[in-house]
Write a structure and sequence with these properties.
This protein is α/β, with parallel strands linked by helices. It contains 14 helices and 10 strands. It has a single domain, classed as TIM Barrel. Strands 1-10-9-8-7-6-5-2 form an 8-stranded parallel sheet. A hairpin with a 7-residue loop joins strand 3 and strand 4. The protein is globular, with a radius of gyration of 19 Å. The mean pLDDT is about 95.
């Protein structure tokens, strides 16, 4: 029998304290548009819509942590970037804030209360907190520092500039990349504080571009991880725990991820969860890592249950574990599969057995 709220359950697990049942969070963002039959354009352009879709999905599933996710561009939009908003696809970058490399030195940290769509996202956090109170943990959206840095000059320019630095070529511009990371870190630090004031319990740091599928572990260690640590440490000092999410096979960088100070590491399905538990130990709680496509979209409820039980067996011993999806839940996912995932966690007696 459940004796804790979802919020209590998640916060306890993040601190390696006992819980009544195992906490669970499918990583739900755009999937919530399916619940209320809303276009993605409407979802990403209105605080009322974003909050309504997420609350409705929570009511349908009863998961323990609600991810107030937005797209990748609500922050750089406030710095002068231009974006396209298709009706039922994720927003796309048309023009980054800096049109040339040297223009990044002219950019300034935006005010989260007035720039771009940041005020809209903060309003959505407040709306959800008012609607649900302390029932569920609120995880605020947050672009990762590498992804944010790239968005300032555009992905192609950013990756090219990193490559030139790694090759130590005369035309390399480490000053530009350093400026991108420093500006991204300052911006995200300020953004996290605004989310905490709006009612968030936990801050997301979704640094998908830092994946070993994109950047080498050496580049991650030199560039991404120090700035991740800087931002996450600043949030932590203000009482705001962070979840670090990096897509893909992050096995080579798990020790470095654990050293960022993140309260939780969200593990993609490409990583062996038992290995992650052994490497990370008690340095961070783990969330993961059901395959979003092969299990949640294409599997049967029974297959979802089996995969969930396998994850629980791999990572729940000793606490510090939240059952989750390896990455974002696709919109094609059957609702019954997500309900089975939640049930698998909530029928597990606790996360210490």
């Amino acid at each position: 029998m459940a004796t804790m709220s979802g919020r209590e359950r998640v916060l306890a697990a993040m601190q390696f304290r006992p819980t009544d049942v195992l906490p669970v969070q499918p990583l739900i963002a755009e999937y919530s548009t399916v619940t209320v039959r809303m276009s993605m354009r409407d979802f990403y352009s209105s605080a009322e819509n974003l909050a309504r879709a997420q609350v409705a999905t929570y009511r349908a599933l009863g998961h323990d942590m609600l991810f107030l996710a937005s797209d990748q561009y609500y922050i750089p939009e406030g710095m002068g970037g231009r974006y396209d908003f298709p009706e039922n696809e994720a927003p796309a970058q048309l023009e980054p804030p800096a049109h040339a490399l040297d223009q990044v030195f002219d950019l300034e940290v935006p005010d989260p209360h007035s720039a771009g769509r940041m005020p809209m996202v903060l309003d959505a956090i407040r709306r959800v907190r008012r609607a649900l109170g302390g029932e569920v943990a609120l995880r605020a959206p947050g672009i990762g520092v590498t992804s944010m840095a790239a968005s300032l000059i555009g992905l192609d320019r950013f990756l090219e500039a990193l490559g030139l630095i790694e090759l130590d070529l005369p035309e390399a511009r480490p000053d530009v990349i350093t400026r991108c990371f420093e500006l991204a870190a300052e911006t995200l630090t300020r953004w996290g504080m605004a989310c905490r004031e709006a009612g968030a319990d936990i801050q997301n740091h979704g640094d998908s571009l830092a994946s070993c599928d994109v950047l080498s572990p050496r580049i991650y260690a030199r560039w991404s991880q120090p700035y991740e640590r800087q931002v996450i440490s600043a949030w932590k000092a203000e009482g705001l725990p962070a979840i670090l999410h990096i897509c893909g096979n992050t096995t080579p960088i798990l020790p470095l991820m654990a050293e960022t100070g993140a309260a939780c590491l969200e593990i993609d399905h490409k990583v062996d969860l038992r290995t992650a538990k052994e490497v990370v130990g008690r340095r961070a709680c783990l969330i993961g890592n059901l395959d979003p496509v092969a299990v949640l979209v294409e599997g049967t409820p029974e297959q979802v249950r089996q995969a969930a039980e396998k994850c629980i067996a791999a990572a729940s011993t000793g606490g510090g574990y939240i059952l989750g999806s390896g990455c974002h839940v696709p919109r094609a996912t059957p609702l019954q599969n997500l309900r089975e995932m939640v049930s698998a966690a909530h029928t597990h007696p606790n996360n210490f057995s």
